[in-house]
Specification:
Strand content: 5-15%
Oligomer: single chain
Helix content: 40-55%
Structural class: alpha+beta
Length: 574
């Protein structure tokens, strides 16, 4: 009986080992040959050396089944279908990389934070949660992790300085809490061919007295929207603007993704305004949120924010297709590619791959786009030194409730899919750039003419003005869901912009108040300020060298200004 038991055990060991027997350099070389080739910032010898490091570091975890999750975008589909399999083949660690909706990722994360149960071994979640992770202290500080428990599984060639988004995933304590995996900006999009048409240029100049070009401010955007709306081009009536307005969770992103900052709400400061950020939330010198309404020194319902909502409503009604009012984010996204939209105030560059497909009305026969990306224009309250737009940074996060060995195996996978070996190839698939070395890679210089200004933007000094939600937001999941409901009321006409923003800031403060009362975020959680008038808070801000909340500007219109796109791009390279 004992001999039979030993034989069975030996067979079991051999069987378990069989899954790992083929993990190693042969599999790595096959992956590099088939998938990477010269699409890497590393030469072949350096690629193999990096793969050898992964093979060696993964040995203690071979045979483990690890589960990670991200939202469903092209970049993560590539990771889930191609890179997860390659990682398993090379290291012997099996990866299930689930793809679910962005809201569902946050929900799973919340469940694990609240229950302490290990739902996933790692999450790719937006860096918009940096304030949440820092205050709740349920995510591992990667700075501590890489120096201590995770040191043996941290790639010596990770090169954190090469990541362009780490300032977005660093908390006020100076620690890195998330590792960027993919990022994309919200940029101004326009029909380059229409803007360069001689008749369009002449007619615009005759009507408005200045040159048709990339709008620097909202006044020019409004003129261009008016000019193109109803104009006939190639036998079709076109529109000067595109947006969406359905009361739906996606309406919230439309605004938390920095719409208010583009108008000029909040304070100066990069990556985010301080002490008042682009959500209108104010913090004190200890980074404790003290209010959202102007009555507590915040700016969510201040003149700049109300102006931002009013412009959104006016432009959609006057210059966008009538159907836009009833559309969600995903429904409106493909519309500009259909060829009837002249410009869009901001478009997520994650859509780039879909906008450059052969045969689209907005793509030339040689594969070059008829459109371009440029920096978004700013509103009348905006001042130099403020952020100018949003950048989405999906980032790897390890929760403390994940057991160490599982966190280590997941951390290896997170580093593999962001490694210098694979990043150039991954970036060509998803066009969500995270590394400076990748952005400067010759393959992107070659491909740039077909990407409508995306590469030029990422190589430009302007890039730093685009950033995610910052650390002033103490509980992103709870606060973000308030936005779409409030804005939806303004969009449907149930409330005026002022009423909608008054309601929103009051709801945000209820959450801040609950957090303060519960004390769950300790001495970095909210501490609400006393209430004063807008004028008093504005005087206090100005006395301290700050801006927000600003007083109402009359009239809310400045001198329209445009810039020639080609000159703009030249100025960047100079």
């Amino acid at each position: 009986m004992r001999r039979q038991f030993l034989t069975s055990t030996t067979a079991l060991v051999l069987l378990l080992g069989a899954g790992n027997a083929y993990a190693g350099m042969d599999e790595a070389k096959a992956f590099l040959d088939a998938e990477i080739k010269d699409m890497s910032t590393l030469d072949r010898a350096a690629q193999e050396a990096e793969m050898q490091w992964f093979i060696d570091a993964a040995k203690p975890f071979a045979g483990m089944d690890i589960k990670v999750v991200s939202e469903t975008i092209t970049t993560h589909e590539y990771e889930s279908k191609t890179l997860a399999k390659a990682f398993a083949d090379i290291t012997g660690i099996k990866i299930t990389h689930d793809l679910i909706g962005e809201g569902d990722v946050v929900e799973k994360l919340q469940t694990q934070m609240q229950s302490g149960e290990n739902v996933y071994d790692a999450y790719v979640n937006d860096s918009d949660l940096i304030g949440t992770h820092w205050r709740y202290q349920q995510a591992r500080s990667l700075t501590d992790w890489m120096a201590n428990e995770g040191k043996d599984v941290t790639n010596p060639n990770l090169d954190l300085a090469d990541f362009i988004g780490t300032k977005f995933t660093t908390a006020p304590d100076g620690d890195l809490y998330q590792l960027p995996d993919q990022q994309f900006a919200n940029l101004y999009w326009f029909r380059y061919d229409w803007f360069n048409d001689e008749k369009n240029k002449a007619d615009f100049k005759a009507k408005y007295g200045y040159d048709l070009g990339v709008p620097v401010n909202w006044s020019a955007y409004e003129d261009i929207a008016e000019f193109f709306t109803g104009r006939e081009i190639d036998g079709k009536k076109v529109y000067g603007h595109m947006d969406y307005g359905k009361k739906d969770p996606s309406l919230g992103w439309r605004f938390t993704d920095a719409w208010l900052s583009m108008a000029g709400n909040g304070d100066k400061g990069l990556p985010n305004g301080l002490p008042v950020d682009e959500w209108g939330i104010k913090v004190d010198e200890k980074s404790r949120p003290v209010g959202s309404c102007v009555a507590r020194g915040g700016d969510t319902n201040g003149p700049a924010s109300v102006y931002a909502i009013q412009k959104y409503l006016d432009w959609m009604k006057a210059y966008a297709p009538a159907a836009a009012q009833g559309m969600t984010f995903s429904e409106s996204g493909p519309v500009p590619a259909q060829g009837e939209i002249a410009q869009q105030m901001f478009m997520y560059t994650a859509f780039t791959a879909d906008m450059v497909k052969d045969g689209l009305p907005v793509v030339n026969e040689d594969g070059t786009p008829k459109w371009r990306f440029a920096p978004s224009p700013h509103g009348v309250y905006w001042k130099d030194g403020m952020k100018l737009g949003y950048q989405d940074v999906g980032s790897w996060t390890l929760l403390k409730s994940t057991p160490d060995d599982r966190a280590k195996a997941a951390w290896l996978y997170a580093q593999f899919v962001t490694s210098k070996t694979v990043d150039v190839k991954k970036s060509h698939v998803g066009l969500t750039l995270i590394r400076e070395s990748t952005i400067q890679h010759k393959s992107f210089t070659d491909r740039a003419p077909k990407l409508g200004g995306l590469i030029e933007f990422y190589r430009s000094p302007a890039r730093v003005q685009w950033s995610p939600t910052g650390t002033n937001v103490p509980d992103y999941p709870k606060l973000a869901q308030l936005w779409w409901q409030a804005i939806g009321d303004a969009s449907s006409g149930a409330k005026t912009p002022q009423e909608a923003m008054d309601s929103l800031c009051a709801e945000q403060e209820k959450v801040l108040e609950r957090l303060e009362r519960a004390g769950v975020q300790g001495d970095i959680g909210p501490k609400l300020a006393e209430e004063k008038s807008l004028e008093e808070w504005n005087a206090d801000a100005v006395a301290k060298g700050n801006l927000a909340p600003q007083l109402k500007i009359e009239p809310e219109k400045d001198k329209a200004q445009t810039i020639n796109y080609d000159e703009l791009v030249k100025s960047w390279s100079n």
